[in-house]
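Notes from the 1:1 (GR / supervisor)

We went over the backlog. Supervisor wanted to see one worked example end to end before approving the batch request, so GR pasted a single chain during the call. The sequence is below; no edits were made to it. Supervisor asked that the structure be written out right there so they could see what the output format looks like.
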Amino acid sequence: MTNSILDDLDKLILAELQADARISNTELARRVNLSPPATHARVRRLEESGLADRYVTLVNKKQAGYDMLCFVRVRLQLHDTEQVEGFHKAVHEIPEVLECHFVTGDHDYLLKVLARNSEDLEDFLVNRLTPIPGVAQIHTSLVLREVKNSTIIPLK
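Structure output shown during the call:
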């Protein structure tokens, strides 16, 4: 199922679920002006198609004790399969890495990383990221303020 196959009702259902994934089926049905069984069937179809990927609870970083959000750019020495796959595997095993993207430009990867404080960040950079085989260069940027942070995908 792609966006071109979605009708306006599917888009409305997905918008409501993105805003509040814990909404009851009855309340969702009321908001989209559809019967609860029909709403449930549409939600199931969206889930089975993979468009409604998963439901999560977003944890407040500060309340959880993470005072630093960083973006770390990484360049590998080589781009051979062994180094690339090794880097991917290593990054998957580090819970502080929230996101890892293979990118174009001066660096190969952009990581979104949480740290509790500067000592935590130093430990991550020196003892966990740098030792990964193939890591040639690391540049770190600290987030001073989140201007926008959204998980909502626009469906037009």
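Supervisor's comment: Residues 8-49 form a domain with the Arc Repressor Mutant, subunit A fold (CATH 1.10.10.10).
Batch request approved.
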